[in-house]
Design goal:
It is built from four helices and seven strands; from the N terminus they run αβββαββββαα. Helices cover 37% and strands 30% of the residues.
Length: 184
């Protein structure tokens, strides 16, 4: 009986602090919004080397320096806008490209840096589409969890969109990591 009581006492805190994973998709929720965040190690790289490499990545990845909105040399932070293509698999396995516009923040320190991707808006690329309403990953999460979400997606489509978004974000972060570690 004492063992059962001990097990229950140990499980209660774990249950209280557990976060619900959105249908097994590892969608990072933060204060009701989707925020992808990762800390990368860059052994042997100085803060300034990483800061300069992050600027190069923004310009190289998004083909212009106008995507950079803020360069903070005191906190070694760069914030900009990025646009990626999310290839959504729609009805009849048709590939439907969506523009993924997002804010990107890179914070640099000696030997490591953090990348955050947030304020994500997805719009269909097809110019023939009249209704180019942007939807966010939060809408897809809401659809999966049974709440109201906009965009006209059903649960299976919302899941596929989030899977495609995860893949796109992971690819962008891998590109940043490659630039940060290959520079200098």
């Amino acid at each position: 009986m004492k063992n059962l009581f001990l097990v229950v006492l140990l499980l209660i805190p774990a249950a209280l602090f557990a976060q619900k994973d959105t249908a097994g998709l590892h969608v990072p929720m933060n204060n009701g919004g989707v925020v992808y965040e990762k800390v990368f190690n860059a052994p042997g790289k100085t803060q300034m080397q990483l800061f300069n490499a992050a600027q190069e990545w923004f310009i190289g990845r998004y083909r212009t320096d106008r995507v950079i909105e803020m360069i903070d040399t005191v906190n070694m932070r760069i914030i900009g806008k990025g646009k990626e293509t999310v290839n959504f698999t729609g009805p009849v396995n048709a590939s439907i490209p969506f523009d993924d516009r997002m804010s990107i923040q890179v914070d640099c320190k000696d030997g490591k840096y953090r990348c955050r991707m947030y304020s994500i808006a997805l719009t269909i690329q097809d110019p023939a589409e009249r209704d180019k309403t942007a939807v966010g990953p939060e809408d897809m999460v809401n659809i999966l969890t049974g709440k109201n979400g906009k965009g006209g997606f059903n649960k299976a489509q919302a899941r596929r969109m989030l899977e495609a978004l995860n893949s796109t974000i992971n690819s962008a972060m891998a590109s940043l990591d490659k630039t940060m570690n290959d520079s200098f």
